[in-house]
Amino acid sequence: MDLTLSCMQIITNVGAAKSMFIMAIDEAKNGNITEAKNLIAEGEKSYIEGHHAHLEMFNGEFPKDFSQEHLLLIHAEDQLMAADNFKVIANQFIDLYERMGAVK
């Protein structure tokens, strides 16, 4: 198993998915619901490809020098990126509610 190649497959596919999901929100805000749904579907395909690469990593053997610290670093980076993603989503929702006049 080539750990670097597997990581790059995950980064590439999931990064593309994230971009498509953000573009879908922008399309929806502009009233282009069909295009937004198409972008979600395309993003889901990329996400699944990234997920498959991730699963393959865990079905194989890890290099001998792969340690608990590596797993902790991976988890820390995951949390960092999750926070970044939620910031993007939060800003999109704030913009949406602002446009709607903060209906209660």
Brief digest:
It is built from three helices and no strands.
Write structural notes for this entry.
This protein has 104 residues and is an all-alpha fold. It folds into 2 domains: 1-66; 67-104. It contains 3 helices and no strands. It has helices at residues 3-29, 33-59, 68-100. Helix 1 (3-29) packs antiparallel against helix 2 (33-59) and helix 1 (3-29) packs parallel to helix 3 (68-100). The model has no long low-confidence stretch (mean pLDDT 85).
Instruction: Sketch the topology as an H/E string, one letter per element.
Output: HHH
As a percent range, the share of helical residues equals over 70%
Total number of distinct structural domains: 2
What structural class do helix, strand and pairing data support? Answer: mainly alpha
Total count of strands? 0
Unreliable spans are: none
Reported for the largest beta sheet, the result is: none
SS strand fraction? under 5%
User: What is the arithmetic mean of pLDDT?
Assistant: 85
Principal-axis shape equals elongated
Number of helices: 3
CA distance, first residue to last residue? 53 Å
Rg of Cα set: 17 Å
